Each structure stands twice: as C-alpha cells, then as structure tokens.
C-alpha cells in the first residue's frame, strides 16, 4: 500500500545551462496551510493560558477597571488612589516624550493594574477556601487526624479477622501510632505543603509505572459500544465517524472548550487528567516505565491483519471529514499486501512483561526504519485496530456473545492492540466497536467522558447515508495511508514470541461474564429511599458470601477530583454493618433497618473518600515515606499486603444531556470492565443506565478453583432480587 504524497516541495535537475528548479505550488500551498493551522493552534493555547492564568479575573475586567479609574480621575475630579498616583508620578521621568499628563496616565495605569491584581488574588483565594470546604457533604476536609484514620482502618478490618488476629493488628496499630507514625506523618505533611497533590505522583509511579508484569488484563480496561444497535455494518464508515468525533473532541480539549464536570452544578472537578488523553504512550523501561506525551500529533496509527499504517488526519489545513476518514480506512481494508517478517505479532511486546519489551525496544528499535515506524505508533494521536472478527450482543445467545465481546476488548489476540497507547479504538468487521485504555495516565471516568461524546455524535449528529456510508463525499486527491516499514531480526522475533506466550496464558485464563440486569434499575431503588450504589454494593457482599461462604477485603473506587490532580481513593465496602446484614439474610432474619444502616455506613465511607478523608492512599504514602527513610513498619507492611479479593467500580454516566434514553432506549451503552485484581478474586464493574437497566461486568481466573464468573453472576442477580423483595415485603407489612 504505502502510497507516497504525489507532490514534493521542489525538484531540481542539473542541465548544461545550470540547475533547473521547479517549485511545486500544491506542496507549498500545503506547507502554508499546515503552518497556518499550527499558528492558529498556538494562538488559541496562548489565549487560553492567559485566561486561565488570571482567573477568576479577566483581561476585559482589567480594561473595565482602568477605564473606570481613569474616567473617575479625569471627569469626576476624584482620586480613588488617595494621592498614590501623585506620589508615584514624582518618580516617573519627565522628558519631551512624557508630559505631566502622561505621568498621571502611566501612574493611573499602574495603580489600576495593581488594584485589579489585588482583587483577582483575593477572589482566587476566597474561591479556593470555598471549594476546599466539604461541609456540603458532611465533613470538613482535614478534620480526620492520623489516630482517627488508624481507627477507621481497624474498623474496616474487624469483620475479616477473628479475635486473636484483630488483637494482634490492634497492637501493631497502637505501636505505629505511638512511635513511627507521627514521624512519617510529619514528612507527609511537609510534602503536602510543597506538592500540588501529596498522593497522585507517587500513585502513578509506584502503582502503575513501576509494575513489571503485563499491563494487558492486569491494568488496562475496556469500554463497550451500544448494547442493542449497530448504526452501520460497514467497519470503514463506523471508523470514519468515530475517528472524526474523537479528533473533534481533541480539538475542543486543545481549545479548552470542554466544560469541567460540576458537583451539584456548582463545584468543579479537577480536569488535569484530560491533559494526556491524546498523543500519549507508555514507554517501557527496565526499572520503571515513563509516559511520553507530545504537544502535537497530526496522525493516527492503524493496525489491520498484521500490518501497521500511519494515517494523516489533516489535509488542506483542516481536519479530515468523516467520509474522507472512511476513504482512508477503505484503502487499508482493500490492501492485499502481506505483513513483513515479525510485523504481525509485533504488538505482543506491549502485552507481555515490561522488562523484555524495554530491552528489545532499546536494542532493536533505537535507530533506522524501526525507530521511525515505532515513533509513528508511539507519537500518534491514538491507535486504531481494524479487527477481522465479528462481535456484538446477540439476543439469541446473550451470554456467550457478550462474554466473547468483553474478552476481545480486554485483550483481543494479544498482538492486535498497542496496549501502551493512551487508548485503542477497536472497530470490528461487522461495525461494532469499543475502546481499550491504558490506566496510568488517567482513570476510567476520563475515558468515559470521551466515549460518551463519540457515541452521542456517531449515529445522531454525524449519521450515515441509507447505504451505511458516512455522509459527505470522498476526496479525489487525498494521499493514501503510509505503510510502516520494519526490519525485525530473528532475535527480536524470539522476544516477541516469548511475550506472546506470556500474554496468551494470561488472556486464556480470564473468565469474563457480562450481565445486562433488566429486572429493575435505579428508579425502583430510589423509591426504596436507598442509594443505588449502596444497594448494589450490599448486593455484591451478599452474592460474594453465597459464592464463597466468607467475607473478603473489598475495594470500591471513589474519585478524589474535588482536589487538584486528584485520582482515586478506596471505599472499603465490606463493613461490620454490611456483614451483620448479610449474616441476617443467610439466617432469614434480615430486616429493612439492618439494610438501611449498612447502606448509610457505605455512603458515609464514600463521602469520606471523596473529601480526602479516606485511609488507603494515606497509608500508602506513609509506607513510601517509611521506605525512603529505611524504616520498617510491621503495621504498614501488613496493611498493604492484604489482597483485594473483590475489586469493584461503578462506571458513571457523566453527560446525561447527551443521551435521551426515554425517547431512544436503543442507544443504551454497555459500559466497560477490567480484569481480576487477585488470582483468586473477582473484578466487578457496573454501570447504572436510565431507570431500568444495570450492566455488570464480572471477571475472574479459570485457574482459581474458588472463582467462577458465571456462578458469581447468578449470585449477583439473585442478591439484587432478594434485596428488592425485602423492601417490598416491608411495604406490604406497612400497608396492612
């Protein structure tokens, strides 16, 4: 394939009369338009930088202050500066270019500017104080000291330990609180004064980037397409609309036109994680990976049937339209060339262990055509896989079809996704699509925000023609995609095979099960005057106890984006109150009051986590400080070594205005999921859609004799129905 651009900037030939130079006007025009686009983008970034730099003030506010000040001084004969302008004027030099009137004007500008800066500074700090107060939830930030957090940890650990184990842990906690803890806390407090966020940089480095195992399954997660409909069965058309929608989202992001999410329509959530959504790749290292982010990228990388392509997203100084993107994808799909030696399985390097990939990258991809091609992939805006399999929800075979679809998005064939990219857009042969996202640069709600934009733009705003193509016309002179060239020696191919073997074993072990729970949704749960999230978490605890006959340490992710550069905190959902309720349910003695007490406890923990008063990130940072100081803490070591055998996360639907599920229930999404965290545990992701649907994504490992995703799914369904019955039975009793 690999068509080259038809025009080059200039050509020359040597003749007897000298050098004959022929300028190519089309190429120069493209250079001019490209430069114009680049400078427009720089200007927009500069303007946004100025606007955000003076927020909550504004340049127009400065103009109003200066005009008002000068008008008051000149026409009303009032000096608001109380003589400061006169005093300042005396220190300004007088020359033939600066009159006394000019002195007063310059002095007035300086005083007015100073006043504007002072007002802006005061407004900024008042706003900061207001936003740092979380009493609107229930508790002011920073009100929990180290002693209280240690008590909260012991409270969360109590239902998982017998008396002897708990007494031992209590002793370790008291010793830590009395001796090493205060010293570690002092260092951590010092960091909090200096750094913009005392957790996030360490969390990114030690939880994600320093992991040496595969990121496929273990870290990356996925997002699914619409559940019931496929807008077109033409994969090139689906890719055309989706890629264009993604690039339009990037344009809005670059121009700071995406509004921050607001809590209660008043309090903004930090948007810093959006910064590395595009043009970002995780680069492997021997000891630690790094995130490589480019300020600008004008192309995407595409994989199809073992071949890699570079596709430019701009032409004539503008972004390609959907039909033009479809045209490029059609060219790739029509290409009959064979993969080069080692090319087909190359991406398996990103799916296996990190150290072999880091060494191979340094040895085989640091120069020549391999480096150029690898740069094209790693510096692309994002990665696209044109998958040659067909995936979708099949009403006649819902279980197997959804399970296969989820597994494909999570790991594919282990060599047809570039797992290091910030995200992969995956378009299947029948037009279904999805995302696979790398986790270190941001959390799932950030990718979810992009995906909601894409799904809402695709069939509604952009649409398709009657025969399933993107709307618009193809471009007669559009240069085709560039086939990337590789020279992969046999030694490197052996490393690729080793990574593929590791990745295949991991992928084959994944037991994935997806449940569209349609019996009821948040509408009925809210009528029971209970938090939908609390209701589901308690149902998960009941289901897990029925599945394994015991309680386990449970992880629920909560966002901390009320703080600058905030990521997540852990809600420990397995509480004493929840265990009391589950035990009562198992003995047919459960009451509605026990359920409500457990739900309220869960909500309290969620509020604590959101407002910075969770315990797990704090203990994690204390542990790191102890390692930096060379101190051993038996308490911290025990806390951080306990496995999360039930890891859960809710996928929020953030832009409700984009989806009218009452008018268009067919456009309901499937949500997304992730792999199991513990070898003998479950990973559960769920999304609450509209009033009547909750989708569960369950993962575990076939190799564990203790887990079975389908069995656990049946237990979740039954637990949800049993909790609802408890409310209905109580209502019947009250009616009597």
Written account of the structure:
The structure is a single chain. It is built from 22 helices and 22 strands. It has 736 residues and is of the alpha+beta class. It has five domains: 44 residues; 74 residues, no CATH class; 81 residues, Fumarase C, Chain B, domain 1; 299 residues, 2-Layer Sandwich (Chloramphenicol Acetyltransferase); 179 residues, Chloramphenicol acetyltransferase-like domain (Chloramphenicol Acetyltransferase, 2-Layer Sandwich), CATH 3.30.559. The strands form six sheets. An eight-stranded mixed beta sheet has the order 15-9-8-12-13-14-3-20, sandwiched between helices. The longest helix has 33 residues.
Mean pLDDT figure: 87
Percent of residues in beta strands? Answer: 5-15%
| Name given to the CATH homologous superfamily of the largest domain | Choline/Carnitine o-acyltransferase, domain 2
Class by helix and strand content?
A: alpha+beta
The outline comes out as globular
Number of domains: 5
Largest sheet: 8 strands, mixed
Short summary of the structure?
With 736 residues, the protein is of the alpha+beta class.
Write the layout of secondary structure elements.
Blueprint: E1 10-15, E2 18-23, H1 25-53, H2 59-74, H3 84-89, H4 100-132, H5 146-157, H6 163-178, H7 180-194, H8 200-209, E3 221-224, H9 235-254, E4 262-263, E5 267-268, E6 280-283, E7 290-293, E8 299-304, E9 307-312, E10 314-315, E11 318-319, H10 322-334, H11 354-364, H12 368-378, E12 383-386, H13 398-411, E13 423-427, E14 433-437, H14 444-462, E15 482-483, H15 490-508, E16 510-517, H16 522-527, H17 532-548, E17 554-559, E18 568-572, H18 576-586, H19 592-610, H20 616-628, H21 634-641, E19 646-650, E20 672-674, E21 682-689, E22 693-701, H22 709-735
Parallel strand pairs: 8-12, 12-13, 17-19, 19-21
Antiparallel strand pairs: 1-2, 3-14, 3-20, 4-5, 6-7, 8-9, 9-15, 10-11, 13-14, 16-22, 17-18, 21-22
Helix pairs in contact: 2-4, 5-6, 7-20, 9-10, 9-14, 11-15, 17-18, 17-19, 17-22, 18-19, 20-21
Main location: mitochondrion
InterPro entries: Carn_acyl_trans, CAT-like_dom_sf, Cho/carn_acyl_trans, Cho/carn_acyl_trans_2, CPT_N
Subcellular location: Mitochondrion outer membrane
């Amino acid at each position: 394939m690999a068509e080259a651009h038809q025009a080059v900037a200039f050509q020359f030939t040597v003749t007897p009369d000298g050098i004959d130079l022929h300028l190519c006007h089309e190429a120069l025009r493209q250079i001019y338009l490209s430069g114009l686009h680049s400078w427009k983008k720089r200007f927009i970034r500069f303007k946004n930088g100025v606007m955000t730099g003076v927020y909550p003030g504004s340049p127009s506010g400065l103009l109003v202050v200066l005009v008002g000040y000068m008008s008051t001084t000149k026409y009303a004969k009032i000096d608001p500066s109380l003589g400061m302008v006169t005093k300042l004027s005396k220190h300004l030099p007088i020359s033939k270019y600066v009159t006394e009137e000019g002195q007063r004007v310059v002095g007035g500008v300086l005083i007015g500017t100073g006043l504007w800066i002072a007002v802006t500074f005061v407004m900024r700090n008042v706003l900061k104080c207001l936003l740092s107060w979380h009493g609107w939830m229930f508790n002011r930030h920073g009100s929990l000291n180290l002693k209280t957090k240690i008590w909260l940890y012991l409270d969360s650990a109590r239902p998982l330990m017998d008396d002897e184990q708990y007494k031992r842990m209590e002793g370790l906690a008291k010793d830590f609180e009395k001796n090493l803890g205060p010293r570690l806390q002092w260092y951590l407090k010092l960091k909090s004064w200096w750094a913009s966020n005392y957790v996030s940089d360490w969390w990114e480095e030690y939880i994600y980037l320093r992991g040496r195992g595969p990121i496929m399954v273990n870290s990356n997660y996925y997002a699914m397409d619409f559940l019931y409909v496929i807008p077109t069965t033409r994969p090139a058309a689906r890719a055309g609309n989706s890629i264009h929608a993604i690039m339009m989202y990037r344009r809005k992001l670059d121009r700071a036109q995406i509004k921050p999410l607001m809590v209660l329509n008043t309090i903004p959530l930090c948007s810093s994680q959006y910064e590395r959504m595009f043009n970002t790749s995780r680069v492997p290292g021997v000891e630690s990976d790094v995130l490589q982010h480019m300020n600008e990228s004008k192309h995407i990388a595409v994989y199809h049937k073992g071949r890699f392509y570079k596709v430019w997203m701009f032409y004539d100084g503008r972004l390609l339209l959907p039909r033009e993107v479809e045209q490029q994808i059609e060219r790739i799909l029509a290409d009959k060339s064979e993969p080069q030696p080692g090319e087909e399985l190359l991406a398996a390097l990103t799916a296996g262990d990190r150290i072999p990939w880091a060494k191979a990258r340094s040895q085989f991809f640091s120069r020549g055509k391999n480096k150029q091609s690898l740069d094209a992939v790693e510096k692309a805006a994002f990665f696209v896989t044109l998958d040659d399999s067909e995936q979708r929800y099949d009403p006649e075979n819902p279980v197997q079809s959804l399970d296969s679809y989820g597994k494909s998005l999570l790991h594919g064939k282990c060599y047809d996704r570039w797992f290091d990219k910030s995200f992969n857009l995956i378009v299947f042969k029948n037009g279904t699509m999805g995302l696979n996202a790398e986790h270190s640069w941001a959390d799932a709600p950030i990718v979810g925000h992009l995906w909601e934009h894409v799904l809402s733009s695709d069939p509604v705003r952009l649409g398709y023609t009657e025969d399933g193509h993107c709307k618009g016309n193809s471009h007669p002179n559009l240069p085709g995609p560039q086939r990337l060239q590789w020279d992969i020696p046999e030694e490197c191919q052996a490393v690729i095979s080793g990574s593929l073997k590791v990745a295949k074993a991991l992928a084959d072990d994944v037991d994935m099960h997806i449940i569209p729970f349609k019996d009821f949704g948040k509408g009925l749960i809210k009528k029971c005057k209970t938090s939908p999230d609390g209701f589901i978490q308690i149902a998960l605890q009941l289901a897990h106890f029925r599945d394994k006959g015991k309680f386990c340490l449970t992880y629920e992710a909560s966002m901390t984006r009320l703080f600058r550069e905030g990521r997540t905190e852990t809600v420990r959902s397995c509480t004493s109150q929840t265990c009391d309720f589950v035990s009562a349910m198992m003995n047919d003695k459960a009451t509605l009051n026990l359920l409500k007490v457990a739900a309220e406890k869960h909500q309290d923990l969620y509020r604590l986590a959101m407002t910075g008063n969770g315990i797990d990130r704090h203990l994690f940072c204390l542990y790191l400080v102890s390692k930096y100081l060379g101190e051993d803490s038996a308490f911290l070591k025990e806390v951080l070594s306990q496995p999360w055998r039930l890891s859960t996360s809710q996928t929020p639907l953030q832009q409700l205005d984009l989806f009218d599920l009452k008018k268009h229930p067919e456009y309901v999404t499937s949500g997304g999921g992730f792999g199991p965290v513990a070898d003998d545990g479950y990973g559960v992701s769920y999304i609450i859609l509209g009033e009547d649907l909750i989708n569960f994504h369950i993962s575990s490992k076939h190799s564990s004799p203790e887990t079975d995703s389908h069995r656990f799914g049946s237990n979740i369904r039954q637990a949800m129905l049993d909790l609802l019955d408890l409310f209905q039975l109580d209502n019947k009793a009250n009616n009597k």
